[in-house]
Amino acid sequence: MFSSVKCESKARMDGKTVIITGGSAGVGFEAAKDLADKGARVIIASRNETKLRKAREEIIKATGNTNVAYKQLDLSSLKSVRNFANQINTEGRVDVLINNAGAIALPDAVTTDSLNLTMQINFYGAFLLTFLLLPRLKASSPSRIINGSAAAMYLGEIDFDHWNDVGRYSIVTSLANSKLAMVLFNAELSRRLEGSGVTANTYDPFVVKDTDILTNLPGFIKEISRFFVNIIGQEKEDAGRQISYLASAPEMVNISNQHYKFCEKFLRHWSVSDTGLTRRVWEESKRLVKISAEEDWES
C-alpha cells in the first residue's frame, strides 16, 4: 500500500518558516517534527497551550532544532484566526502554510460566528487564515500552501443555501461537505495564484493509527472505527512524512492544483474543473467569514 521510499527527501529547509495547524498532536506533530529536523523554523498552532508547549519541547528534543515556536489558534472562532494571522503578519517570512487541523463527529451546532461548527473548523477557518496570510506568502515566494482533505470529499455536496444548517447533515455528510469545500477552494486558490510563485495542493492522509481524530465518536462506533483503523491504517509518522515531502521536496516547487495521497498524485474531485462553482465557493466563503475592506487584498 504505502512505501516510505516515495516520500524520502533530503531537501533542507534552513531559513524557511513553516506554519502547521493542528501541530501539537497526531499527523501535524509528526510533520512538524520532520520539517524541524530539516532545519525549518516551525510554528505549530492549536487550541490547547499545554499541549502546544509539550509538543514544542518534544520536537526540540527530537531534532535539536530550537527554532520551534507555538501559537494558540481556535478555528471555531474567526476572531482567534484573525488574531493568529495578525501575529504572523508582524513577523518575518512564511514559506509554507499547512492547513492540517480538522475534526470529525463534532456537535451539530453553529459557532458564535453563526457558521456550522464542522464547516468552520474543517474549512472556513482555514479559508480565512489562508486569505489573511496570502500577501505574506506571496512576498516569501516561492512558497507553498498544503490543504488537508479526505476521501469523504467524494460523498460531499455544495448547497450554498444550506451550508450552515443544523439538523440537516449526518456525521459523515457534514465531514464530506467540509472536505469537498476545501478541495474546491484549493482549485480556485491555485488558479488565482498562477504566476505568483505560490502553489496550492491538497492531500489525503488516508487512515492513520494512534491519533485523537476518533475522540468525538459515540462509544460503540468509536471502538469499531478504532478496530478498523488499526487493521488498515498507516503509522502517523508515515503520514507526517508525506506532508513534509509536499512541503519540502524540490520537485514540488512548481506543482499546483493537484491532490496527493501517499506522496503521489491522486484522483481529484470531478468538480474542481467547474470554474463557476469554485469561483462561487471563493466568493461565498469571503462573505461568510466577513472579509473586511482592509483585509481584502483582491480589491
UniProtKB/TrEMBL annotation:
It holds the Pfam family adh_short. It comes from Bombyx mori (Silk moth). Keywords: Oxidoreductase. The keyword Protein transport does not apply. The keyword Oxidoreductase applies. It comes from the Eukaryota. Gene3D superfamilies: NAD(P)-binding Rossmann-like Domain. This is Short-chain dehydrogenase. GO terms for molecular function: oxidoreductase activity. InterPro entries: NAD(P)-bd_dom_sf (IPR036291), SDR_fam (IPR002347).
